[in-house]
Structures are given as structure tokens and as C-alpha cells.
Design brief:
- The protein is α+β, with helices and mostly antiparallel strands.
- The protein has 12 helices and 16 strands.
- The strands form 3 sheets. It has a 7-stranded antiparallel β-sheet with strand order 6-7-12-13-10-9-8. Strands 1, 2, 3, 4, 5 and 11 form a 6-stranded antiparallel β-sheet that branches.
- A hairpin with a 2-residue loop joins strand 4 and strand 5.
């Protein structure tokens, strides 16, 4: 390997150079606000070509509230690329590029994982860990568009198994559930997740931790399944055409039960304590208060929602375990001649990492998927093409029946708990839609009204 002389830009001008570009990125949470950036660490990927340096910067944004930490991989080239698409600008005599769009970064990233390499940088270190046979060389990379919180890079070459590597843009102290859960499921022989290839772990400075250090995952590579549709698109097309989804929903319920069973068998579980229930209900009431503050029209449902939460606190709960945490039709792939494959086990992006890694009730996943069936009909209605009202009802019932048949858990015995989790999810959706898609706000608000009305009967 050759080494380009170390690039150590003066922090203030460099961060001022980078800030306008960051505000335009989909993964940057405070779009529209000028970032107040602080660099807390860097690490490099070795390069075989002279005149190129690949550096990943960890940048802390102090703009609002709790500081947000971002992973920003950049490439520095003394000779510019012919394709300027990913060019951020010129700095200190180098052309600076967004790493995932530059083959110097993507090739180095996949090699770092496959070879189990280690890099000690400025105030941090990174380590690649391979969990499958080494992938082939010479794969061509492209960035998957449309993502918001991460950047996914697809690696493909004829005759080689395609790979997708997710680069986590927003970093937190603690293991990322996407890496931990999918790896555990695959190692346990589950056919319902893609095969993992490997990941990168890192340690960096963190003034918020008592030790002054934090650890977490930077990237996760796994098998890529090309040419497949997610269940959201499959369900949306069926509803738009007036075609039932009961068979598909039932098989998805069976697949979900299998994932829950494998996670329960291969990872820790815990009997529910009164303190556990109190913590969950307190979190639900906190989300309700926050949602009302953001969407005041929810105030009229407040008493009924609190009653649903109180009822959930009074019933028996199943054993706590690791779950998906953000389960919806967009997280499920329809793979021909195979069945459903479940992906993206990160949990809700708005929840802290440690909260996403806690043991939780599998009924939360059930409620989230029920909300997703409701969203199929709601999104079509917003677009002026309302499907038959029984489409969602029958799909929801089939999903529950499939889950119950495979798990031996009669969903009807946990209806009060599922109602509470479904309302909790709808409150989360309400805040999201108010902030990002006001035209869709009626979908979760109408669901809250229906749930409150039904439970009150």
C-alpha cells in the first residue's frame, strides 16, 4: 500500500467548508439550520494508488438540543475524478468527495471488512469483522438512493454474490441492533434474514460517557437480494387493484413468529416485572404528551388514550425479548421461490440506541405491522383512490392468525396490550407526519380516533 501525506486541515476552515454540504444531505437531521460542528475523531482506509487519501470524520453537531454525532467518510484526491457528481468542493489543494460515491472509499471499505483490518486514527480506532467467507474482488459499487438515516452501497459483479453495505451516518454509543440481531438470526439458521458478510466496530471519544469513550458500529455488510420488491409495494398494488392480501399476510405472520422464536432461543429473555410495565407505560404517556404538544388536536383523545394505556398496565404480558423494533411492510422483502425476508432491525430511528437494544414485548412488532396494513389503505385514500375498507381488516386478521398458528400465542389474549402499542405507534406516526408529510397526517389521526372509539365501546 502507498500512503498519501496526512491531510490535517485546520479545523475551523475545514468545518466551515463542509457545513453547507452537510445541510443538504438526507441523513442530516437539522436540515435548514447551519451546523455547529466539532470534529472528535478520524480514521483512514489504506489506498494502493498515490494521490488519494480516504478519511472518515466523526463530526458532532451542536445546533439544537442533544448533540448529534455523524459519520462522514470523505476522499481527498490530488487529481479530480472525471465524474464530478460526488464532489463537495476544493479544499487545501485537494478535490474532496462524498466517500460512498467514490470507488476509492467503497473498495477500501469492503476490503476492510473482508480482511478484518484495523485502523488507529485520531482519537479513535476501527476494526473490521468478517462473519462469512470473504467476498470476491472487483465488485462494482453504486449508492442506493432514497435512504434518509443511512447510506447503503451495493456491490455487484457477474458471477459474484451481490453485497449491500450499510454505512451508519448517525452514530450512538452501543451496539447497533441491525448488526447484532441479523447476525444472531443468520448464525441460528434463520431463513428469514439475508446472510451477513461482516461489520465495522469502532471506539471514539465521548464526553457524555463516564469513561470518556464510546463504542458502536460504523457499517454492516450483508447479502443483497436484487430485483425484489418490498412487501409495502406488493401490498399497495394489491389494495389498489382490489385484490385481497390475506394469504400473503398470513404467511408474513408465520415468518414473524419464526423470527421472534429464534431471537428468544438465541438471545436473552426476561419475565416481565411491575417495574418493566411501569417504564413502558410511562414512555407511552410521555410520547402522548409530546405528540399533543406538536399536534394539539390530539388533546381531545387524551383521556381515552390514557385509559387504553392504563388497561394495558393491568393485564398479563408475555416474556420480554429482543424484537425488530420498527416493523412494517417496507422492512420485508418478497423473494421469489423463497418467501418473506425481513431486514433493517435498527429499531425506530427517533429512539436512543440503548432504548432500541432493550428487551421488549413481541406485541410491539405485531402492533407495528398492523399499523402498516392500515397505512396501505390510508396512503391510497390520501391519493384519492380509497380501497375497500375491509382490505385492511382482513389483512390484519390474517397476519394475526398466521402469527398465532405458528407461535401458539393467541393474539386475542393480548388485545389490550396490542391496542396500547398500536396507539403508541400511531402517536409516533403523528409526530413524524406533522414534521415531514402534513398531507398524510390524517392517516395516524384517523387511526387514533378509530382505536379510541372501538376500545370505548
Amino acid at each position: 500500500m502507498t500512503s498519501t501525506p496526512a491531510i490535517t486541515p485546520d479545523p475551523a476552515p475545514f468545518l466551515a467548508f463542509l457545513a453547507p454540504w452537510m445541510t443538504r444531505q438526507r441523513w442530516f437531521a437539522n436540515r435548514g439550520a447551519a451546523p455547529a460542528l466539532e470534529q472528535i475523531g478520524t480514521w483512514d482506509l489504506e489506498q494502493s494508488e498515490p494521490g488519494i487519501r480516504v478519511t472518515t470524520h466523526l463530526l458532532l453537531d451542536h445546533t439544537v438540543g442533544t448533540p448529534a454525532l455523524y459519520q462522514v467518510p470523505l476522499t481527498y484526491r490530488s487529481v479530480p475524478l472525471a465524474n464530478p457528481t460526488a464532489l463537495i468542493g476544493e479544499f487545501d489543494g485537494f478535490s474532496v468527495y462524498d466517500g460512498p460515491f467514490d470507488p476509492a472509499y467503497t473498495t477500501g471499505l469492503l476490503d476492510f471488512i473482508s480482511l478484518g483490518s484495523e485502523s488507529t486514527g485520531d482519537q479513535m480506532w476501527a476494526l473490521g469483522k468478517r462473519t462469512a467467507p470473504r467476498v470476491g474482488r472487483g465488485l462494482v459499487s453504486r449508492v442506493l438512493t432514497g435512504e434518509q438515516s443511512n447510506t447503503s452501497i451495493i456491490f455487484e459483479h457477474e458471477g459474484e454474490t451481490p453485497v449491500i453495505c450499510k454505512v451508519f451516518r448517525s452514530l450512538h454509543d452501543g451496539d447497533n441492533p441491525d448488526v447484532v440481531l441479523q447476525t444472531a438470526l443468520a448464525q441460528a439458521g434463520s431463513p428469514t434474514v439475508p446472510q451477513p458478510v461482516g461489520h465495522i466496530v469502532a471506539e471514539w471519544s465521548d464526553r457524555g460517557e463516564s469513561s470518556g469513550r464510546a463504542t458502536g458500529h460504523l457499517a454492516f455488510a450483508q447479502e443483497f437480494l436484487p430485483g425484489v420488491q418490498d412487501a409495502w409495494r406488493v401490498a399497495l398494488a394489491a389494495a389498489a387493484e382490489g385484490t385481497g392480501f390475506s394469504v400473503e399476510a398470513r404467511s408474513l405472520g408465520i415468518a414473524t413468529a419464526g423470527v421472534h422464536a429464534t431471537l428468544a432461543a438465541s438471545m436473552p429473555t426476561s419475565e416481565v416485572t411491575p417495574a418493566d410495565v411501569e417504564a413502558v407505560i410511562e414512555s407511552m404517556n410521555g410520547r402522548l404528551a409530546a405528540a399533543i404538544a406538536e399536534v394539539p388536536e390530539l388533546e381531545r383523545f387524551g383521556p381515552a388514550i390514557r385509559q387504553v394505556f392504563a388497561q394495558a398496565a393491568s393485564v398479563s404480558w408475555p416474556v420480554l425479548q429482543r424484537i425488530h423494533g420498527d416493523f412494517h411492510l417496507g422492512q420485508v422483502l418478497a423473494v421469489p421461490h423463497h418467501g418473506w425476508v425481513i431486514i433493517d432491525f435498527e429499531g425506530e430511528p427517533m429512539r436512543p440506541m440503548r432504548e432500541r437494544s432493550r428487551l421488549d414485548s413481541p406485541m410491539r412488532d405485531i402492533a407495528s405491522m398492523l399499523r402498516s396494513f392500515d397505512y396501505v389503505c390510508g396512503s391510497l385514500a390520501v391519493g384519492g383512490a380509497a380501497p375497500a375498507p375491509e382490505w385492511s381488516t382482513t389483512a390484519r386478521a390474517a397476519f394475526e392468525e398466521g402469527y398465532g398458528a405458528a407461535s401458539g400465542c393467541d393474539i386475542r389474549h393480548h388485545r389490550a396490550l396490542i391496542d396500547a402499542f398500536e396507539l403508541d405507534k400511531a402517536l409516533y406516526e403523528t409526530v413524524y407526519e406533522a414534521r415531514n408529510r402534513p398531507g398524510w397526517l390524517s392517516i395516524p389521526v384517523d387511526a387514533i380516533e378509530r382505536l379510541c372509539t372501538r376500545v370505548a365501546r
